[in-house]
Amino acid sequence: MLHPQWQKIAEILSNTNTHNAIFTNGIYIPDRIKTLKRAYNEILISLHGNELTHNHLVKNNDGYKTSLEAIKVSLDHIPSVIVETLLHPDVVPTLEHLAGVLNQSGIIEWRLMPYIPTNQHSSKFIGVNMFSVLQKIQ
């Protein structure tokens, strides 16, 4: 939604018979929900752990609250709302908390994205075992 031609792109999409999805942090969802509703069948919103962890990772003190509000607004207007969570080492310990938050919000699809560091000093985090993470949050 930051693209300078975002409105035009959404207009084009709204005139197609395709399944359209957008991935966002949710900042603009409340203000743009009418356009999103016409153009998209699916919204993927990033939410990475509890409030402290999410805000730290996205470098925004209101990021967590903004994402939760975006989830709430989206669930009222969009057929499919999915939460995407980065399995950063700081996020994994907060997954149980996040599972509870998502359950209460009405989210039925939650996707966990592997964390792949881009610098040589972070290679110890590549091997996150998805199965053990899922066992911990059940």
- The quaternary structure here is single chain
Total helical segments: 6
Number of strands: 4
Q: Specify the structural class.
A: alpha/beta
* Strand residue percentage: 15-25%
- Uncertain residue ranges: 123-131
Name the helix and strand elements from N-terminus to C-terminus, one letter apiece.
Answer: HEHEHHEHEH
Net shape:
globular
CA radius of gyration: 16 Å
Question: Major sheet, described briefly?
Answer: 4 strands, parallel
Order of strands across the widest beta sheet?
Answer: 1-2-3-4
Mean pLDDT comes to: 87
Helix fraction, binned, reads: 40-55%
Question: What gap, in angstroms, lies between the N and C termini?
Answer: 34 Å
Structure explained in plain terms:
The chain has 138 residues and is an alpha/beta fold. It has helices at residues 6-14, 29-39, 51-58, 63-77, 95-105, 130-137; strands at residues 21-24, 42-46, 80-87, 109-114. α1 packs parallel to α2 and α2 (29-39) packs parallel to α4 (63-77). The protein contains 6 helices and 4 strands. Strands 1-2-3-4 form a 4-stranded parallel β-sheet, with helices on one face.
SSE arrangement:
Layout: H1 6-14, E1 21-24, H2 29-39, E2 42-46, H3 51-58, H4 63-77, E3 80-87, H5 95-105, E4 109-114, H6 130-137
Parallel strand pairs: 1-2, 2-3, 3-4
